[in-house]
Amino acid sequence: MFSLYTDAATQPESGLSAGGILLIHDHQQTQEKVALTATNNHTAEFEIATIALTRLRDQLGAAAGETTVLFHTDSQIVSQSLAKHYAKHYQAEVDRLLSVQSAFQLVLTEWVPEKQNQGAHTLANQALHAREADVK
């Protein structure tokens, strides 16, 4: 089983976004910081979740079909949209994420408070600060 934590950070004034991915498997942690194309936080949350699951799927190859993923997000819209398979303003993002999830045997999505998602949160903020520094 894989435990996957994602978070996004967006600077509203500049529209810059970045994400953090924390993957835990067999007591080993993998951390990644990602620049995102999204210009608002909700879209960024969907984007980082899709990127994280796509990278895990690609890494596992055919074994993804036998893999269970515990996906943790502090984004209520991502969590609720996945549960309902619907989001009024983000349906394309929901559909992309559900499509990627279908490669796995099972993806269990759990909403967690921000304080329980500090690893991914910190990575997202570090990546955003790096992007802002590059622009200045």
Keywords:
Nucleotidyltransferase, domain 5, alpha/beta, 4 helices, 136 residues, single chain, five-stranded mixed β-sheet, 5 strands
What does this structure look like?
Residues 6-127 form the RNase H type-1 domain. It holds the Pfam family RVT_3. This is Ribonuclease HI. By secondary structure, the chain is an alpha/beta fold. It has one domain (2-135): Ribonuclease H-like superfamily/Ribonuclease H (Nucleotidyltransferase, domain 5, 2-Layer Sandwich). Helices cover 43% and strands 30% of the residues. The protein has a 5-stranded mixed beta sheet. A hairpin with a 2-residue loop joins strand 2 (16-25) and strand 3. Helix 1 (41-60) packs parallel to helix 3 (91-101). The longest helix has 20 residues, at 41-60. It is globular and about 45 Å long.
SSE layout:
Layout (H helix, E strand, L loop, with lengths): L1 E10 L4 E10 L2 E9 L4 H20 L7 E6 L2 H9 L6 H11 L4 E6 L6 H18 L1
Stated plainly, the CATH topology is called Nucleotidyltransferase, domain 5
Mean pLDDT: 96
Q: Please tally the helical runs, counting DSSP H or I stretches of 4 or more residues.
A: 4
Q: Which bin fits the share of residues in helices?
A: 40-55%
Biggest sheet layout: 5 strands, mixed
Distance separating the two termini: 41 Å
Count of extended strands:
5
Percent of residues in β-strands? 25-35%
Tally of separate domains: 1
Per CATH, the architecture is 2-Layer Sandwich
Helix/strand/pairing class, anyone? alpha/beta
Low-confidence stretches: none
CATH H-level superfamily? Ribonuclease H-like superfamily/Ribonuclease H
Q: SSE string, helix = H, strand = E? A: EEEHEHHEH
Please list the strands of the largest sheet in the order they lie side by side: 3-2-1-4-5
The geometry reads as globular
What's the CATH first level? Alpha Beta
Rg on CA atoms, Å? 14 Å
Organism: Levilactobacillus spicheri
Protein name: Ribonuclease HI
Domain RNase H type-1: 6-127
InterPro entries: RNaseH-like_sf, RNaseH_domain, RNaseH_sf
